[in-house]
Design brief:
Phenylalanyl-tRNA Synthetase, Chain B, domain 1; 15 helices; alpha/beta; seven-stranded mixed sheet; EC 2.1.1.216
Amino acid sequence: MILQEGKAKLRLDKPVFYNPVQEFNRDLTYDCFLRFIQRILCVMVHNLKIVLKGDSVRILDALSATGLRALRFAQEVEHVDFVLANDFSENAVQIIKDHIVLNGLENKVIANFGDAIETMMNHRSINKRFHAVDLDPYGSASIFLDSAVQCVAENGILMVTCTDMAVLCGNTPETCYNKYGSTTVRMKCCHELALRILLRSIDSHANRYSRYVEPLLSISVDFYIRVFVRVHTGARMAKESGTKVGNVLVCSGCHSMEITPILRKAKDEISLKFCASVVRQTLMGAENKCIHCGSSVHQAGPIYIGPIHSRPFVKLSYSIENTPEEERLGTHNRLLGVLTNVSEELDVPLYYEHDQLFNVVKCSVPKLIAVKSAILNAGYKVSGSHCNPRALKTDAPTSFLWDIYINRQKSVEFVKSILWEIKFGLFRSEVNFQLHPKATFQTKTDQMVRFQCNKGKNWGPKAKAKGSINSTYASFYVKKKIPEDSVE
C-alpha cells in the first residue's frame, strides 16, 4: 500500500510507527520551517555577510521512524543540503532506505542507524551543527534536550514534541520534576502550563552552554504539545533567562492564580545587575491562605513566563492563507484557524476557564462574549487561547474578575457557595456588560476551524512500535527468555 502525504510517498506494508493523526503536526512543521528558511534564516545569514549559495541547510530528523518528515523536508523545503534521518531501530532504518529510493532522494536524505543522543553529540562542533533539529519522540523529549541544544547551529531552529501530557498536566508532579525540573498542579490551564514547563526546560539546558532560546511558536493540540524555538549564543543574554522564569501560586478553592518571577534586573549608575525578586504576591494573606476565599494555596513551577510566540513569525506562517488551492496542505483549514487563534492571544501567562469561575460562585454561566466585554469596557485586555475554547486570558487583576462574577450573581442567593467566604467587599468596581466591538475575534466571526473534533476510533497516540527493540546495540536491550530445559 502506497500512501502520499505532501510530496512524500510511503509504503505501509511493513511494521513501523506511523500515525495519520499527526498529519497536522507534520504540516505545521513544514509550514513553520519553510517560513523560517525563506524569511528568517536567509535574512540572518545576509546580515552576517554570508550569502546562502545553492543548498546549504542541514537538517536532523533525530527519531525518524518511517522517514516521512525527512522525506517531506527534502522535497518541500528550499536550500536543503541534506537531511539526516536517524533511528535506533534496524527495521526502521531499512524502511527509511526503501522510502528514500521510492522517492528518488538518494542525494538528499541519509538514513542513519544510531542512538539519537549520540548522533546529536557527534555534531556539536560548529562546522557539523544542524540548522534545524526535529525531535518527535514517543512520550517525553526530556532526555534529548541537552544534546539537542548543543547540535543546533547559531540562530537555528529546534522543534520539539512531547506526548506525555499526563505528566506535564499535573497527574504526577514528582515525575514531572524528575524529567523537566518543574512541578505541576492540576489546573484548567494545564496545557499552557505544559508548554511553559517544556520551554523553561529547553532554555535551562541551553543556558548551561551560554545559549538561550527564543520561542517562535508554541501550541497544544490533540494529545501533544509542540514548540518551535530559535537557539542563540551569548553569555550576556543567557543571563536574562532567569528573568523569564517564575513560579505559579494557585488557590485550591477559587482557582485564583498569581505569577512570582525568580530574578529581576536592577540598574545602577555603573552596570546592570541581576538579583532575587522581591516577593510582592497579593494572593496569600498573613496565614498563607488565599485572601479571596481562605483556601490553601499551592505552588507550581518554575515555568517560562516570557512570550511563548513570536508575533512576526506567526504572521509569516499565517501567509498560508494566500496559498493556491492546488498547493494547499492536507490540514490547511485547521492550520489557518490555529495560527489565527494564536495571533489573537495576549502575551499573558496562563488563563482561566470561563465556566470554572462561575461554578465557584454557583451561578449560571453567561456567554463568554459578555465577560470579555465587561473586561474590555473596564480598560483591560482580553483574549482566548488556542489551548481551550473556554479560555479567558487577560491582564485584569483577579479581584476585578471576581467583581464581574459577583455582579452577575448579585440577584441570586449564594450563601452555600464558596463566595460566602470571599473576604473582599462586594461590588467594588463598576461592571459594564454592554457588548464591546472587540469582544469577538476573527476566528469566531470567520467560523475558522480552531479546535479539531475527534475522528473515528482510536484517535490519539498509537502503540509504540516494536521495531528492533531486541537489537544488541540498544541501551534498552531486552534479554530473550531462555527455555527452562536449556538451563543446566
